[in-house]
Amino acid sequence: MFTGLIEDVGELVVRRPAGAAAKVVIRTGLPCGDVRVGESIAVNGACLTVESVDVAAGEVSFHCLQETLGRTNLSRVPMGTAVNLERALRLGDRLGGHLVSGHVDATAAIGAIGRRGEDVEVAIEAPPAIRPLLIPKGSIAVNGISLTVASIEGESFRVCIIPHTWQATNLRSARVGDRVNLEGDMVGKYILRWQALRDGEGGSVSEDTLRNAGFL
């Protein structure tokens, strides 16, 4: 479990095939002496398990499954690309972003990048898997960053990014057309799943049923 608050921007230094999967090595400024084999780190929002740590080189290695390669941008970004890193949430930590599972739902292209005063506004395509989970002022993880949906416009949505987040994440190097990893809000997923099960049983969902179930 993660919060979407990025701890470091690392560098992809190795990606080599391992059957249908891949070995991925990230160079990072995180304290590698504190990183343990078997723990989880979100890389561009994708939860990966640490396979080995080279403390002297400041590098962490992961085994990246075929499913992960196919569902995220980790299979296509070039060597040397900056990647967002976040270690797993510990019980008792402050939850400054929102609950992020590290299970990427889809990738999408950046459609536009512009300025709104000191902030940066980014328009991103909204694939079908993401659209039902988008609500104005709701949460979404973009490359693992906890962001707020500013607006929804047809088949795209916009987020506004404050200067600190822009500088502290890999979005600062993003270009129009780049593909980013998207993860919809976990609470929204459970509501949609519950609604689908209810509809499948011939039931209907109203504000009263959601309220009685504790969602409102």
Task: Give the topology.
Elements: E1 8-18, E2 21-27, E3 40-43, E4 46-54, E5 59-64, H1 66-71, E6 82-87, E7 106-116, E8 119-125, E9 139-142, E10 145-153, E11 156-161, H2 163-168, E12 179-184, H3 186-200, H4 207-212
Antiparallel strand pairs: 1-2, 1-6, 2-5, 3-4, 3-6, 4-5, 7-8, 7-12, 8-11, 9-10, 9-12, 10-11
How does this model look, in words?
- This protein has 2 domains: 8-87, Elongation Factor Tu (Ef-tu), domain 3 (Beta Barrel); 106-189, Elongation Factor Tu (Ef-tu), domain 3 (Beta Barrel), CATH 2.40.30.
- It is built from 4 helices and 12 strands; from the N terminus they run E-E-E-E-E-H-E-E-E-E-E-E-H-E-H-H.
- A hairpin with a 2-residue loop joins strand 9 (139-142) and strand 10.
- 29% of the residues are buried.
- The radius of gyration is 18 Å and the shape is globular.
- The protein has helices at residues 66-71, 163-168, 186-200, 207-212, and strands spanning 8-18, 21-27, 40-43, 46-54, 59-64, 82-87, 106-116, 119-125, 139-142, 145-153, 156-161, 179-184.
- With 216 residues, the protein is an alpha+beta fold.
- A 6-stranded antiparallel barrel has the order 1-2-5-4-3-6. Strands 7-8-11-10-9-12 form a 6-stranded antiparallel beta barrel.
- The model has no long low-confidence stretch (mean pLDDT 92).
- It is 15% helix and 40% strand.
